[in-house]
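Re-run with default settings, no changes from the original entry. Doing this only to confirm the output is reproducible before filing.
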Amino acid sequence: MNPDLSIEEPVSLSMVPYTGAWTKSEAAHLLRRTMFGATNQQILDAVSNGMNTTVASLLQIPVISDPLTYDSNDATSAVGTTWITSVYPSDVTNAQLTENARIKSLAAWIMKRVNTENLSIAEKMCVFWQNHFSATVASDARATYNYHMLLRSHALGNFKQMVKDVTIDPCMLLFLNGATNTLYSPNENYARELLELFTIGKGPQIGPGDYTNYKEEDVAAGAKILTGYLVDGLRSTTLPSPVATYTSFLHDTSTKQLSTHFGSVTVPNAGANEYSNYIDIIFQQPQVATYICTKLYRYFVNYDLTPAVMTDVIPEMAATMIANNYDILPVVEQLLKSEHFYDVSLRGSIIRGPIELLFGMFNATNSGPNFNLAIDSEMYLTLYWLAESMGQAYATPPSVAGWIEYYQAPAFSKLWVNSTHIKTRFDIANYITVYPGIPVGGQNLKLNALAFVDGLSLPSDPVIVIDDMCDVFFPKAISTLQKTTLKFILTNGQPDFEWTIQYNDYIANPGNTTFSNPVKQRIEFVLARIFQMPEFQTI
């Protein structure tokens, strides 16, 4: 499969608010880019509510429930209760069993969040930040949970404060050796990534140790500035959570000299606040806003940063960010309401990643586990592993730079559909549609075809059924021949009225599988075909 991702030159590069037609096409594009899988009803609601109201709803970050223990190997948390502040047993073997149980619970919790996202950009933003600040799983699940909640709490908040909080978060301190960065043994790992990947970005090398936006001397100075933080309480038998602790005698108290890229300023000793002062200096450079806005643009609009985009779009986003003291929400809101965002040439320009693929199928069809805590959790854990098998393990990006599909030029998201992963995509689509499902705990993980068809505009009309399915799953219109083929699969080649009779019989006899199974089977066949079409692989 090789989806056509050729991009036309956008008709509009304007960031002024969009005032054009507001149909299912525009509404679906907005939801497709901000959610993992919008239903037909959510798209219809977005049409009715209009762009401004829909964007306002999307930009709300809802409260979520805590992960729950479902594996009895957790020695200090009862099944059905949360473990996020529970201590660990003192016995090493039981402590490891407890950790294993909590990591499974955490993975299931993450997948459940995505599956139950409702009308919110929250989960899309969490994946964005997990990729940007790509710390992997810590040795204490509580630290990993706290890290994910930190990213979520800042999802649309203040980027500068987010960088400060991430810098001294236990998970990040462990991931990039900040917890071993001391006066006596400086470690440059985090200091380097703070500049290269997290804030200002690495520009072209213009001299020995000079990367346009910073120099090697800034990395060395930054490492000294960041000394003195340790992590206490890992797998503690008494403390409710790991914590970052500033230890003054491990901090370098000298005055640090920054390069000409930062105005040759000096950073005097400020103890526990010195890292914060340093980050304030970094954020005085406008390039920080430009850098993070390019990443937001690539994530929500298109990976191709053309000269026109860099001239007309990114500067306006960066200016909005700076004017709002580095708050994320005003920038995302501006982008999602812009003429440029709705340009038809940009639709279908991004290939679905594994998480996008899985929940583009489950969420859009109103499907998900609905058995009991243990089975549901194991099913969500299975979805986590399926995403991992296709190259995207949520909590463990492959490197500090995140997933290569978000940054590796020139292919970017095309890398998700390599020869290894495309067959897996198709196999999974078949298992959750036309096959009995993926067996988990004596039950089957499978799409709910009946719930999906019941949620369409007029399920008894095969033409409208196919139209709605195309609206939900395809970013651009498909050909008349393709639609005719899908309708042929739906009706099994029979006249349209036969489908109408079949569906109405099912509705008149709820719970009678004699009538429901044929409807269910035909919808599953159509879904299976859709999920293997090149057009579905893109958003």
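The two ends are 16 Å apart (CA to CA). The mean pLDDT is 96.
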